[in-house]
Automatic annotation (TrEMBL):
Family, as annotated: Belongs to the glycosyl hydrolase 1 family.
Keyword set, alphabetical order: Glycosidase, Hydrolase
SUPFAM superfamilies per UniProt: (Trans)glycosidases
Highest taxon of the lineage: Bacteria
Coiled coil: none
UniProt-listed InterPro entries: GH, GH_1_N_CS, Glyco_hydro_1, Glyco_hydro_1_AS
PANTHER family in UniProt: 6-PHOSPHO-BETA-GLUCOSIDASE ASCB-RELATED, GLYCOSYL HYDROLASE
GO (cellular component) term, any one: cytosol
GO BP annotations listed: carbohydrate catabolic process
Organism of derivation: Vagococcus intermedius
Active-site feature positions: E372
Protein name as catalogued: Glycoside hydrolase family 1 protein
Amino acid sequence: MTKQAVFPKEFLWGGATAANQLEGAHDEDGKGLTIADVSPGGKQRMKLLMTGESALTIDYDTYTYPNHVGIDFYHRYKEDIALFAEMGFKTFRMSISWARIFPNGDEIQPNEAGLKFYEEVIDELLKHGIEPTITMSHYETPLNLVKNYGGWKNRELIGLFERYARTILTRFHKKVKYWMTFNEINTGVFGSFFSVAMRNESAENNFQALHNQFVASSLATKIAHELDSELKIGCMSIYATMYAYDCNPKTVMTKDLQNRMFNYFCNDVQVRGEYPTYATKYFEQNGIQLHIAKGELELLKNHPVDYLSFSYYMSATVSTEEKEKTAGNFFGGAKNPFLEASEWGWEIDPVGLRIALNDLYQRYEVPLYISENGLGAIDKVEKDGTINDDYRIAYLEKHLVEMSKAINEDGVDLFAYTPWGCIDLVSASTGEMSKRYGFIYGDLDDLGEGTMARTKKKSFTWYQNVIKNNGLV
């Protein structure tokens, strides 16, 4: 018998995607290249990008580029949105590709074809009663801003992003209430290429890049609230619930430092509006000096975000000794003997989500939005065409139960849930199609071969019933 999980009446159920992972049409209608467009497919993707082994160019002779086609949402969005509506989506988290609006990121005038495309997508969502949630920057900085500006360490990107944010907010603010600024911004702590658009930079440059994004985010929030005080702007980060492997005080201290710098730092600045003392001491102890222009600290303080959104896939266990390691999306750690793992080594921890919700809400006391959660797995198409992804249903059910407990037993203000990759798309970490998250199957393989036909998985009907019943019954 399924455990009950009850949610608030106006809860926003939906799904989440990113432009660079599903749209395709990477060079159509005036779109410029982004960092995603030069990211090779395959399990070595992150290594190739971070070490600089792959040049920031397109090399079809050596690599594949699944993002260039995605699942062709650019031409098939009406079909896909109709399926989202059939599931009962209340919201759809999508992103706008900066390079569709400003192909090189630094133009004065926007590309009208790009604005028109997103307007048509937004109108199609609204036609079906689906509230758009838009991420302004989701791992797709225009490539020109890397090659000719050096990425986010360059303060000029603040003004360029401000122009981009003003353009899309002005165009769409009457149709879109919920916005997010930078996707999983705290991956920049590790110098993630997707986040800060830089490779092999110093810690100082990584944190300067983050500071520049904080300022850009506050400027976007300021613009939005000036256009309409009812608009809701959120920050977005990864959250990995952290455990100490043992009760050795040194292990606990190590865990606490990693927790602060990864799970709290970016949220502290964007929600509380100021740099926390632990961060300023960390900078001091590590010789990190940030260039902070006059008025920027006041901007951060005066224009914090309205809500906090986060992705949650796994927890992390911290050890000061050499232990058996587990895989993780930017954050691995020691293997937790109490948890099972996915096919990609990501440990499955539903209770960790309840811990995360309590931790974030008690710390910040702003509404929370789970913007990503889900199970990446290899799905098998049966001879009769069905896809019985019971493992995905089991994963999500357990997380829904813990979400419900956080709301009803712990008093957490959680208002939205958008599982990742509600329709199969290209994996950000590996560039694979075989690592699937969706309720809808896309007939494509890792080499981009297939019919692109959409098929409802067993989880489609399951999620449809979850939304219809506003939870598990």
